[in-house]
Amino acid sequence: MYNQGYRPQPGQTKSGYYDAQGNWYVPMPGQAGPVQPQKRRASQPPSRQRRASQPPKPPRDAGGKGKRPRKKRSLKWQLVKVLLVMILLAGAGVYGYIWKIQSDVRPYLNVFLDNVSVDGIDLSGLTWEEGSQLVWDHVNQKQNGWYVRLRNTNGQYKDITAQTLGISFDPTAALNAAWAIGHDVDGEDRKDIFQLQEEIEAAQSTQNAFYSAQQSANTAPIDEILQTLEAAAYREPSDAYIISFNPDDRDNPFTFQQEVYGQRLDTTAVRERILQMVQNLESGEVMLEPETIVPNVTVADLQKTVELRCRATTPISSASTEDRTENIRIAFSKINGMSIPNGSKFSFNDTVGPRNFSTGFLPAIEYAYGTEQWGWGGGVCQASTTVYLAAIQSGMTILSREPHSMAVSYTEYGKDATVSDTRGREIDFSFRNESGGTVYLAAHVIGSGKKNLQCEVRIYGPSLNGTSYELVTETVEVIPKPEEAIIKEDEDATYVTYVDETKTINGREGYKVDAYLIIYVDGVETGREKVSSDTYPAKADTVYVGVTPREVM
Q1: In whole angstroms, what is the distance from residue 276 CA to residue 46 CA?
Q2: With a threshold of 0.85, does the pTM exceed it?
Q3: How far is CA 156 from CA 153, 274, 289, in A?
Q4: Are the C-beta atoms of 169 and 212 separated by less than 8 Å?
Q5: What is the C-alpha to C-alpha distance for residues 323 and 379, in angstroms, rounded to an integer?
Q6: What is the DSSP string of 487-512?
Q7: Who's near 482: CB < 8 A, 6+ residues apart?
Q8: pLDDT tens for residues 280-335?
Q9: Are residues 162 and 139 in contact, defined by beta-carbon separation less than 8 angstroms?
């Protein structure tokens, strides 16, 4: 023991003894009183022996008048002391380190670590009981409150719930995994305090999110519900069609059945949306908006197929008899309301039929063989001419057409079309419909009063899309009238009766006429096609002479 500032007295001290001369020494273990110090062995170095043979000097007293003998320490003892100090220091450091780790771990022994969540619920600082209760409440609320509402445009709806699909959630595994972070929960694989401290430190900067196990949903009910809704939403479309052709109604010649738009529900997109909401357990509403099914044919489509392609008219002479005009009406009544499919042929003689008493026709003046004469059905040539003008200017393909042998009063040279049903001398007018669709014919005698009557023929069919046709004629040659008159006996007394009577019927010039069909697109001429070259022969004067002699008085 070091001197604490007071001098030692002779006799026993805590660390040794002083003898009568004041010499201090340490007794051997088990020695009761003072003994003489033993002499060192001869084997010690001489210098050590000399020092050992010299008597120790007494230590100084408190007053500084004497000196205490200096204790002799070995190097081994000094090393032991240093080692002990180091051990004490190391032990203190280890104790301090362990104490700090315990201080870091102790606050989290009974609570969840920071940044730990289950199903999006932050459990930081909550006890096991608090966290478990919070998560279970959330799971039950989520499971019982989840739904997908399918609503249609009429406001009707159908709900799909977790019970419908057999969906359930179990957060047990997620809670256990969340609690295992920073806690010693495995009886076999125990965590020491250092591992726990590492997990706690890692949790400070890491988000540890866990989620409840979800039982796979049975999607069969979804498919069944969607099939039912799809069947209920489906409406078959219906095409528009022509109910009737009304040729007597110029403003609305066609009656249409209106198209019906259908609808269907695209369940593919709806199903994908529902499955996404099931996967995310997202509640909400899905609108069922059927898509429109457009019919193949609409009224607008049909109207393009029955547009007016051409309207042709010819004036009825005020000199025309009622019977002649009636013959035109009868012929038109056979044509009015006809429909000619694409690719089909129209024949005037086949359509109108024989012109005789039994078919209702009347005798009237007609143009035949270069003269005007009475015949059954006189006037039907004006009907055929009007049909020809309408047909060629509506784009029909003309198959047969012949001009008269002389000028007619109702149209120009090159624009007429004569017909005859006389056996052996039949002349027909015909055309083929190559428009791409059905064409419809309306034929009437229009106007009021004898001076304002007209023949009218309208042809309806596929739209010409801005194209129109015009028939024009050009006189290419004038044929002079023969100078020598023709003498002809009037055996029927048509003009004169007696041999001394004559009647001169003036002849006429002849003409060669070319006809062209001009094609316009949006009002601009784009083409010109020659369609006929007609010759109207010249005719000499005819002098009729009676054949009956006069009786001599």
Answers
A1: 101
A2: no
A3: 7, 17, 12
A4: yes
A5: 9
A6: EEE-TT-SS--BTT-EEEEP-B-EEE
A7: 507, 538, 539, 540
A8: 778 899 998 899 999 999 999 999 999 999 999 999 999 899 999 999 999 999 99
A9: no
